[in-house]
Amino acid sequence: MTTIFDFNARSLDGKPVDLKTYRGKVLLIVNTASNCGFTPQYKGLEQVYEQFRDKGVEVLGFPCNQFGAQEPGTADEIGAFCEKNYGVTFPLFEKIDVNGANAHPLFKHLKSEARGVMGTEAIKWNFTKFLVRKDGTVYKRYAPQTEPKELMRDIEKLLAE
Questions:
Q1: Pick the CATH number of 30-160 from 3.30.2110.10, 3.40.50.1370, 3.40.30.10, 3.40.47.10
Q2: Is 61 helix (H, G, I), strand (E, B) or coil?
Q3: Domain boundaries, the chain
Q4: Is 64 labeled as catalytic in the residue annotation?
Q5: Digit-coded pLDDT (tens) for 82-132
Q6: Active-site residue identified among 4, 29, 30, 36
Q7: How many other β-carbons are positioned within 10 Å of the β-carbon of residue 89?
């Protein structure tokens, strides 16, 4: 069975990251953008991270420029923006595609495991969220308009598993 621990990604500074390093943690994986109407959710994502990281939760942000070209910046610009404007300390990764032929393999897996509205696989917009169990299996997909604080109950449930 494939889990998210079978994938690798590159950190925002270009270093390879084996997602096995997150084994045993509940993960909140989000495609992000700096110039989106949902960009203020960075603050909520950081609050989730601060509240739960010591309990075994990681928030992983994956910048994406596929929706309205709302993430045009370089890795340095993205990192500086997130830190300056939202105090982001959770891990950010290299800018990726989440849909189409060049979609990152991790997101291909997430989309196939947790489909969206009406069974669609495609991600519709920035700040689509995926909650992943400690064993690396995908628990649920959340729409962009779902605020991070609305995931608290599900995060606590997965921590208790």
A1: 3.40.30.10
A2: strand
A3: 30-160
A4: no
A5: 999 999 999 999 999 999 999 999 999 999 998 877 777 889 999 999 999
A6: 36
A7: 13
